[in-house]
Specification:
Length: 211
């Protein structure tokens, strides 16, 4: 369980999130809300990529920063935009991430091939990332987040730029992982997941409330 207790975030003098309270349990939680409302900011806080200005984030009952190492050991994070190493192949990049996560590389490689097969990226795993389209990059960022079957999966717009059929394949993997993990994602295409999510939260006007 990932819990937020009166978590606020400011950039300079600007308050983006104001005393957010929520317990993210096992299952899929969707974040919706207007552009610029703070959804990606909230995901960065959950993924420990940034720290709250005040308030407390807890993982499995222990507050950060004490729980940060335990959280990161079982974190999969797919940010919205990331600089990928253009000269590596997708498979080399995935193994680089697997090594950073401390995963057993043969098992991680097998898992990467299974994931990429499921989301239609299998034929491209030995190609250099420099040759990848926007949708291929998005799927690669998603695939690396699933490596090691994380108990906490944070996904920022994983199906943006994907056609409906490919997005449905990505959604299927997300729902599969959400059976055993805390999964939090932003999406502008939440309708496809209606009825299958634990909660839908609306981020708006600095607050985060049930939609
Ligand atoms: N590092 C930063 N420094 C200053 N302001 C920032 C920073 N990151 C985000 N912001 C501001 O915080 C606000 C929330 O941005 P954020 O990207 O979290 O919104 P969002 O809800 O994810 O938007 P979108 O749906 O368009 O992706 C925006 O006004 C943005 O300009």
């Amino acid at each position: 369980m990932l819990s937020l207790d009166r978590v606020s975030k400011r950039y300079g003098r600007r308050l983006i999130l104001d005393r957010v309270e929520h317990d993210f349990g096992t299952g899929l939680t969707l974040l919706v809300g207007p552009s610029g409302a703070g959804k990606s900011t909230l995901l960065r806080l959950l993924a420990t990529a940034e720290r709250p200005s005040c308030g407390t984030i807890g993982w499995d009952g222990t507050p950060l920063p004490r729980a940060r190492a335990a959280l990161r050991r079982t974190l999969g994070y797919a940010p919205q935009a990331v600089d990928l190493p253009e000269d590596l192949t997708a498979r080399e990049f995935a193994m680089h991430i697997a090594a950073l996560k401390g995963l057993e590389l043969d098992a991680a490689d097998r898992q990467f091939l299974q994931i990429t097969d499921a989301i239609g990226l299998h034929a491209d795993v030995s190609n250099r990332i420099a040759t990848f389209s926007g949708g291929m990059r998005r799927r690669l960022i998603f695939a690396q987040a699933l490596l090691g079957s994380p108990r906490l999966l944070i996904l920022d717009e994983p199906t943006a730029e994907l056609d409906r059929e490919t997005a449905a394949r990505v959604d299927a993997l997300i729902l599969e992982r959400a059976k055993a993990a805390v999964v939090v994602m932003t999406t502008h295409a939440g309708d496809a997941l209606a009825g299958k999510v634990r909660a839908v939260l609306r981020v708006d006007d600095r607050r985060v409330l049930p939609a």
